[in-house]
Amino acid sequence: MSGIPISHILFLSTALFFIGMYGLFTRRNLITMLMAIELILNSVNINFVVFNKFLWPGKLDGIFFTIFIITIAAAEAAVAIAIIINLFRSHRSIDVEDATEMKW
Amino acid sequence: MNYSDYIALIPLLPLAGFVLLGLFGKKYFRRSSGYIGVLILVMSTALAFYTAYQYFFVSGKVHDTYQTIIPLKYTWLQFSSGTSINMGILVDAISVMMLVIVTFVSLMVHIFSLGYMKGEERFSTYYSFLSLFTFSMLGLVMASNIFQIYFFWELVGISSYLLIGFYYDRPSAVAASKKAFIVTRFADLGFLIGILILAYEGGTLDFNTLIERLTNTQSSQYINITTASFLGISVMTWALTLVFIGGAGKSAMFPLHIWLPDAMEGPTPVSALIHAATMVVAGVYLVARLFPVYSINEAALHIVTWLGAISALLAALIACTQTDIKRVLAYSTISQIGYMMFALGAAKYGGEAGTGFTASMFHLFTHAFFKSLLFLGAGAIIHAVHSNEMKDMGSLRKFMPVTHITFLIACLAISGVPPFAGFFSKEEVLLAAFNSNKFIYSIALFTSGLTVFYMFRLYFSVFWNKQREKHEPPHGISFTMKLPLIILGAGTMFIGFIPFGKYVSSDGKLLESAFHLNFSIAPVCFALAGIAIAMWMYKTESNRPHRVAAAFGGLYQAAHKKFYMDEIYLFVTKKIIFNLVGRPAAWIDRNIVDGTMNGMAYSTAKISGWIKGIQSGKVQAYAMYFFIGIIVLVIIVLYLWK
Amino acid sequence: MNLNLVLLIPLLTAAAVLFCKGLKQVRIVSFTGAVIQLILSFVLLYGYWQERSSGNNDAFLFEYNYVWYAPLHINYHIGVDGISVAMILLTAFIVLTGVLVSWKMPAHTTEGEKQSKEFFFLLLFLGVGAYGFFISLDLFTLFFFLELAVIPKYLLIGIWGSGKKEYSAMKLALMLMGGSALVFVGLAGLFFNTHTGDGSHTFDILQIAQMHIPVAVQKLFFPFVFIGFGIFGALFPFHTWVPDGHSSAPTAASMFLAGISMKLGGYGCLRVATYLMPDAAQQYSWIIIVLSCIAILYGAFATMMQTDLKYINAYSSVSHCGFVLLGIGMLTKTAITGAVMQMVSHGLMTALFFACIGMIYDRTHTRQMARLGGLLKVMPFISTVFVIVALCSLGLPGLSGFVAEVTIFMGSWEHSGAFYKITTIIACASIVVTAVYILRAVGKAIMGPLASKEFSLLHDADWNEKLAAGLLTIGIIAIGIAPFWLDRLVGPGADAIMKNITNVVIAK
Fold first, then answer.
1. Does any domain span residue A84?
2. How many domains does chain A have?
3. What is each CA distance from A96 to A90, A100, B83, in whole angstroms?
4. Which domain holds residue A90?
5. Predicted structure pTM score
6. pLDDT tens figures, B159-168
7. Looking at beta carbons, which residues of chain B come within 8 Å of C305?
8. What mean pLDDT comes out for the span B627-631?
9. Where are the domains of chain C?
10. Where residue B225 falls among pLDDT bands split at 50, 70, 90?
11. Alpha-carbon gap: B50 to the closest alpha carbon of chain C (Å)
12. Residue A70 falls within a domain, yes or no?
């Protein structure tokens, strides 16, 4: 178990996080953005797991949190896709640039 | 009867007439308003004559001196403990004299207008305006308080405005009325400031107290007002000069005379009343009212004298060249008022030196008669030939005998031919000028020659000159128009014999008129010469007038163009006031003052436009702000938080 | 007499209007309410004389004090002195005539008669604000009513106005709101510098007048209050809402604006700024005088160049309201009395002027002088009233303008310094300029030949217009012929203000 050092894993999660960020900021397609958010959530999940493992090996709090997040992510995806579908119905597009009614 | 019992009725009756005719005239008195006006004026005139009788022969004199009596006084508006506008009635020699003049001339004009204005659509309005004028003028002459005089002064001005603009659908009448009011308003500004100074320094607005304080060289008010100075001139001189400017505006003294000739746009009887006999002499009256104060201030008196003399001369010169019959008379009025002014200026308070004062008042009195007669005569002529221009007239003596005779009497009177009224008064004026300043005397003498010339020029061109053939014979005039002419003509014949110095003098004491036969030779010679020249030029149709005009060349042109005064005024008002003051003010207001306000609003809107740009509605932008915000917070918390 | 009635009746009238059905009821209800209010104002005047003649020398009569919000010491405290009575009379006159003038809704509104009910409601509501303002003796209550009087104006102009009405309504509302924001800062500043016996603060005008607010505080907050109220009263250079606001407003709203609203400013400057902060008033008086002199003369010159009748009257209001501020700035009893007289006189006069212009506009559909002319022939009544009010504006004796102006001049001249003399002369000079523009307007619009053949078909004033114009004309003439009653009414109030100021001088 002592094979992979913590820094590697943290590097992975950070990379994942920023990839997600990048996707969130640059993609105009809402589905892709949703996927980017999933990436961010997963990077957080990895962080939880890895810190739980390295800091408090005897406890399971971090793992529980991960499970919570996965659940919420699932719910969120459902809600988000519902919103996206409604948006598509009204706008005939799921491009985020087209949905700027809430400005000012 | 006491004065207080009835004297207030003299002005109040015309006021009632104004209210009655003004409110109900159109509906109920369409035809009878003229008779109502005349009736009211008859009552007022009777009361005025009764007052004069009471004052001059019964109760006015105490210890051989005519007293100033104030039978009525009400506080109208209290400013501070000393100063208040009081509505009162002041009875002294000159106010009683003015009472008689105003009511009498007004009555004549009322009667004359019955015929002259017959068939006019706004007949009742005309009579209500006449009543308003009579009321205001009576209030003016009886004022016991300097602010009261200002009050009625303005009212007189507005009645004059209304009457000049009576034919309101003529643009020229509207312009003339506007001009008259604005020019006199400008002068009134001086009057108002003068009043403010006098009130401040004298601590009162009542004439009696004011005169008493400012003529007593021991009083603190006198010392204050003479020692205080502004721009090196004593405040006393300022105040009196400013008040005189007010008077000069109303009395059409040079250079504020420009409104009077234009004022002839009004109905001719109105010109006779307002612009010949009564309102225009208000300035003279004002100076006379404050004469005790003027008489101790050399500088102010000099201004009065010189302006009077200049006006007399210039107006006479212009009168020689005018062709409109009413304008000739208007300039003649200016000239004659100039006489009254410099006579006042040449006078001193009390005794023999006060001849000028008596002369001025006497001339005012006789002038009211013969000038209103001239104007009413002119009115009759205009009524008959429907034109103001002298060239449309001629040979009228055959058609209008009454007018002809009375007009001739008036011409002789204004020329100073004995024994008509003008002779006596003019003689005294000249005497006063002779005793005080020889140069003024020579101007006066020369002007009197000019006066004779232009009056007989008028007379001969209207009643003699060319034969009338082409035109229909002018129709005659009605009895109501003849009657005033006859009455005034008779008056002009005889009033000169009134020993005026007995009743009116600067200090109220008896003044024997020093009458020198030798002295009269020069003026009478001038008069006869003037008549002769006018007869030579105008009795028959000829080209002599043109030849004479050509001989005078530039002077004739300048006089014909009224010395370009109108042009100068137009330049100042139109070019300078409108273009250089009014227009920039309006522009600055819209563009700079309001521009600043709009600019503030605009920049607020602009800034809020930038700020609202952040709320773009783009989810990704919000996420970005959120992310940047987190990073900034992290940096703060980690590195900057200490 | 119970002063609450002065507030209650207009409030009830306004509320009743909301429940009316049909325009006829609305008119009758608002007319009745306004008449009752006018009668009540005369009863108030009579009661006031009674109290005074029976020897009651309190500064304020008919006081009524009720705690409104105890933690901040806000009281509903009302009472009147002569000045307030005069202003209440003025307001009652204008509310009644305003209702009469809008009897038949003008034809040029966009919405037509549908909204008439709201129109009358807003008019009456504005009146409520004004009445409340004039009787308040508590700074907060006063401010409350001031705000109440601003909002209806925005709607009145914005909905029923003409021309660039949105712009004007916005401009007016923003500038007046800005003014009241300044006022509020000043009032709050005053409040926190008052100290009552028990260590708390107070909004009560009577109590503050007895205290001595530190001079430094006065100097800080006087400009806020004075400029704030000055914006209402057309203080130069914050007067620019006046021309636009007046010219876009419907007739009755113009009358209210010029007749009542601008008087709120003058009254506030007097009652709050000068009365409560006498030291600062002394120190700043020269600035006020300079600004008002500029307003007087410059307003007059700007008027000279206007071509639209409403603009003429609006600009001349700037000039005439300059006299109000001049009188206040001069700080003599006579000048302050004159300022109040000028407020009353200008209120009546300008309301009548706007009413006349409105009547002319309703018939000819133009306010451009160049397109008018010869109206005296076709509408003698309106034209005669127009001429009367024009003469009042140029200060003809026998009408109210003369009395007020002359009192201010006399009061200003009581000072001895050359500065005061020169500024008075400048102010006096405006009477000439006024004559120029007034006679120009009369000459162009009323006199002269008939401008257009169509005009000859126009009819003269209706009964409601005649009644309105008649009432205001009577007001003008009553003051002009017998100013002593107004002088006796206003004088003691001005005296009380002067006492505060002279105490300062003596203390120095």
1. yes
2. 1
3. 13, 8, 83
4. 6-98
5. 0.87
6. 999 988 888 8
7. 578, 582-583, 585-586
8. 91
9. 4-507
10. confident
11. 29
12. yes
